[in-house]
Amino acid sequence: MSDLLLRLGYLQTRRDRTPNLDLARDLVARNNTTGIREIAENMWNNNKNIHSDCMNVMYEIGRVDPNYITPYAADFIKFLKSKHHHMVRGAITALAEIAKVKPEFTFKHLDEIKKVKETGSDEITVNKSISALAHTAAANEEYSKAIFPYLLQHILSCPHKEVPEHAERILPAVNENNNFEFIKTLEKRLDSLSGSDFTRLKKIIRIAGNS
Fold first, then answer.
1. Has residue 211 got a pLDDT over 90?
2. Which residues of 108-128 are buried (b: 16+ CB within 10 A; e: fewer)?
3. Considering the entire predicted model, what is its pTM?
């Protein structure tokens, strides 16, 4: 077992993920692309605890600087079909970061990302898939025309308790060409909300109006 892998939370018999976060930040700070490659390769490790921790390290690296994980973008797409929900969740989290710097890649894989949004087994997975789509749509007008109507339809059809969170995640894709349509869509859901959810959506509408 390499010294690098021994820093993983599982191999330190830790139940929290702090060691993984520390490792991710250290790899980026040191520009350690060789170490990042080793972590990426071990996302395929036969030990489920190791591959889970390595996925965790990879998407935490992406949160610091997504450029470091773009070489492994194709791996994350493959993991979207994993039987392990935590690997699907980690992969779409990584792809949401990759979409910020390499939207042409995520645009080529819209169908896979949409499928994750529609079949995601937990809230985080669905949320991250929306972020991946929104950051891709934000790249240019071509991508926006292909993705934004899909996101608007999602807002119209998703459960009311999810509207503020999902609307907020779509904000990066909102611009002067589509903000009117976005606002009108959100206003259609206002009546179904109350309390803090209503207040949160009103705030998002104000932000969109300034886009």
1. no
2. ebbebbbebbeebeeeebbbb
3. 0.95
